[in-house]
Amino acid sequence: MKQLSASALTRTLDRQSLLESIHVRKAIPEDVYEIYRIASSVGHKSKDSDKGFLVDDYKSNPSKYKEMFLPRIFELEHFYVAHTANRPVAFLMAYDKADWLRHNPDWLDEIYWHPAFDAKHTKKFVLVDKTAVCSGLTGMGIGSKLYERLISDITAKGITDVFAETIISPIPNFASLNFRKKQHYELAGVRYEEYNDDILTDLVYHKKV
């Protein structure tokens, strides 16, 4: 079956109709090529602060990044895709605390915590690592639908603390900052990390659900 591009979807459906056609489900191995396609549409050398971006340049090494996504589909309980017209158009990857600290054992110690942040919120949490909406479909509420599914699933498990990071240097991700505001996150701290011979500044956000 022929699949519609993001631009074709927006021409065919108005915003409300498109949003109503979106369905969110857990990612499956067969989604890996579409997940990579979505990631590479917003994760490349050119970074647009207003439209949002993923830090990695996914187009630089397709095999590497496809191989990175596949085991995460098996590993993570909270890896979702949003799809319409028989095609995934967005995804969200979130880690439970144990999974996140297994990959990033020093994460909690690396954060310069906000003085008002209460450490009790780190006892049991999920961390949203990557949220990506296909270029051309951002700002239409698709990311919010992914978050709604995540929140529904984690609250059913008794998890009420959610973390996420947003890069502000060397290139600020204004779209991500606006999304944090829309989702009612609060600043919990700041973290610095080395990446490709550069130092990234990440704001660490938290929300109670």
Describe the protein's architecture and organization.
The chain is of the alpha+beta class and 209 residues long. The chain has one domain: Aminopeptidase. Helix content is 35%, strand content 29%. The protein is built from 8 helices and 8 strands, in the order ααβααββααββαβαββ. The protein has an 8-stranded mixed β-sheet with strand order 1-2-3-5-6-8-7-4. α7 links the parallel β5 and β6. α3 packs across α4. The protein is globular and about 45 Å long. The model has no long low-confidence stretch (mean pLDDT 93).
| Number of domain modules | 1
Give the class from helix and strand content and strand pairing. alpha+beta
Q: Count the DSSP helices.
A: 8
Can you write the helix and strand succession as a string?
A: HHEHHEEHHEEHEHEE
- How would you name the CATH homologous superfamily? Gcn5-related N-acetyltransferase (GNAT)
Residue fraction in strands: 25-35%
Mean pLDDT: 93
* CATH architecture label name: 3-Layer(aba) Sandwich
Question: What fold name goes in the CATH topology slot?
Answer: Aminopeptidase
* Share of residues in helices: 25-40%
Globular, elongated, flat, extended or rod-shaped: what is the shape?
globular
Specify the biggest β-sheet. 8 strands, mixed
CATH class categorisation: Alpha Beta
Q: How far apart are the first and last residues' alpha carbons, in Å?
A: 40 Å
Report the radius of gyration as a whole number of Å.
Answer: 17 Å
- Counting copies of identical and different chains, the oligomeric state is single chain
Which properties best describe this structure?
single chain; 209 residues; alpha+beta; Aminopeptidase; eight-stranded mixed β-sheet; 8 helices; 29% strand
